[in-house]
Amino acid sequence: MGRKKKKPVKPWCWYCNREFDDEKILIQHQKAKHFKCPTCHKKLYTGPGMAIHCIQVHKETIDKIPNALPNRNSVDIEIYGMEGIPEADLREHERQKGNPSNDVPIMSQPSSGMPQMPKMPPPLTSPAAMVAAASGMIPPQVVGLNIPPPSTPYMMPGYLPPAPYTAPPVPVQPQTNPNVYATIGAPSTPYVSTLPLQSPLIPPQPLVNSVIPTGTLTNVPSKPLFPCVSNTGADNSSSTTVVGADFKPILSNSTSTTNPPSSSSVISKPASVASTGATSRIIHPEEDISLEELRARLPKYAGMIPQIA
Amino acid sequence: MSGFGGFGAAPTSLFGSPSSQPTFGGFGSSNLIQNHNPMKDFEVANSPDDSIAALEFSPPALPQNYLISGSWDNQIRCWEIQQVQQGWQSIAKAQQSHQGPVLDVAWSDDGTRVFSASCDKTVKMWDLNSNQSIQIAQHDDAVKTVHWIKAPNYQCVMSGSWDKTLKFWDTRSPQPMASIPLTERVYCADVIYPMAVVGIAGRGIIVYQLENQPSEFKRIESPLKYQNRCLSIFLDKKQAPSGFALGSVEGRVAIQYVSPTNPKDNFTFKCHRSNGTPNGFQDIFAVNDIAFHPQHGTLATVGSDGKFSFWDKDARTKLKTSEQLEQPITRCCFSAKGELFAYAVSYDWSKGHEFYSPQKKNHIFLHPCFEELKPRPKT
């Protein structure tokens, strides 16, 4: 039994039963083979995400995941790498792997979808190749589609002129581009499946605010690039831009605004993370003070500080 | 810079013999990384004996590259970094010490002086030509940040402390030119004239404009939900500071324009998190430092997870992630010409003192990076 443990089941693709050495490669495979929009070749993050994309962008309904086994082509099941595989299929696969005739591992399903599977490039093994592969996971055109590169900032004449600050806060995203949501929300189930129902009419601000925090904590797989391009910061700054345009100190009123968070901010990290119902934890001591302050308390360091006023 | 050779005569064995302690298993419980240099980078010789809290390359005014570190063993060290046939080599040049851990270092713009902020509540100025070090600033608590401000009509040193003040020193007077009381302790700061940004406890951020004299410009509540940890100002296409990147302890970085033309210019992204295991936790690590590439404008982040990543904030893409190092990466910086990325591998206290092992060796690595940080071509 020690031997069995030694060889854990490799990551495998639910859609086509293919095995991979690394879940990263598996995810790449899924994006390239199963989550690629047949119309525009955009790579989405999940099957449902792709279906939503096709409906919203191309007005096309996708009823089958491309390149999938006949009984594994549901667009309703959200799979991301090894996440979301139905428990029964997981057990079935493990059982198949567990049996000694390991040379026919792929045929765990009666269907014969395999022969049609296009050849995949051999799994990347060198670290450099993996990194390169990982960073290429979203092709540039995807990014271009979703988030136009901010060319505007460079038009700004520095940060000094006061004019921009008087601009009213603009929390509303001009266009609800479905692509954005598909990409942002892709790996975690809840909002991908619900968002399309909400459609562009929903005011985006509450949406962004609610999506981002939960999304960050529930997204178990950490995605390889700017996984959560959100505009939360924008709202903050634009709402506070009214002050300080004349460079005058604004201590009086902002004292009250900065104090509450600090006094109440003994964030019990694991607790707060758990309270979101997520499966993540922040690797940080519980006390919400800087690591340096904690460390400096150690007698070894504190002892060296001369007690001068 | 001929006068600068003055301190170059120090022997290479200045920092004592290199530690011969073997490196033990990996940082953290689950991984066993035997290799202390998975990126096959060039290791800086005679690295500090305790965690590295500060790291800065010399400014463009110097033709050579010098690297300064400040560390928890109270030392400030200086190396000359030379290009040799096989790559890069470091030559230990000199060191100075404080009475307490050194939390930050900064160069003067002409590269002749180095300023260091320490838990001993002082800032010292180290004149590299004479190798003399004198105290130039005093706080009531540990000094967390130090920066050099070079304005057309004045120059000074800015120090931020856990005593909740930001002070400005002309380096000759024991009294500060200005002292700005803050509501909270200073955690991070950056200066690129005419902008200074200070991150404080309680998620506050204060932007100062430095023309004529430092004055508060704007207060922002952090766009991130967790403690401010590191901060770096970035430039726009005209090489004027236009915003900053802020890293928090919750594996996240905010790109924040001070005057965004469009609210959507500001955004946040996640980083330094473990890949979630199917039924385990996802570990989220602190972002320990952020640095912008001096030529490309792309950025590097380093984290408690022991990895560094390169990003293109304009294309909003990741350019590269490193392998995992044995210990967290505490600080990073780019050389003035942008050919080298230096990163310091040492314990950052993110898992508390239980995980602190003084026997573990600390490393500073040099990673040739000019190509890797080129922005993603626009398509």
UniProtKB/TrEMBL annotation, chain A:
Residues 98-114 have a biased composition (Polar residues). Transmembrane segments: none annotated. Its main location: nucleus. It is found in: Nucleus. The keyword Ribonucleoprotein does not apply. Signal peptide: none annotated. CDD domains: SUF4-like. GO terms for cellular component: nucleus. Residues 13-34, 37-58 form the C2H2-type domain. InterPro entries: Znf_C2H2_type. GO terms for molecular function: zinc ion binding. Keywords: Metal-binding, Nucleus, Zinc, Zinc-finger. Residues 93-118 are annotated as: Disordered. This is C2H2-type domain-containing protein. The lineage of its organism: Eukaryota, Metazoa, Ecdysozoa, Arthropoda, Chelicerata. The gene is 107360880.
From TrEMBL, chain B:
GO terms for biological process: cell division. It comes from the Eukaryota. Keywords: Cell cycle, Cell division, Cytoplasm, Mitosis, Nucleus, Repeat, Transport, WD repeat. It is found in: Cytoplasm; Nucleus. The keyword Repeat applies. InterPro entries: WD40/YVTN_repeat-like_dom_sf, WD40_PAC1, WD40_repeat_CS, WD40_repeat_dom_sf, WD40_rpt. Its main location: cytoplasm. PROSITE patterns: WD_REPEATS_1, WD_REPEATS_2, WD_REPEATS_REGION. The keyword Iron-sulfur does not apply. WD repeats lie at residues 45-82, 95-136, 136-179, 287-321. GO terms for cellular component: cytoplasm; nuclear envelope. Gene3D superfamilies: YVTN repeat-like/Quinoprotein amine dehydrogenase. Pfam families: WD40. Belongs to the WD repeat rae1 family. This is Uncharacterized protein. It comes from Tetranychus urticae. The gene is 107372265.
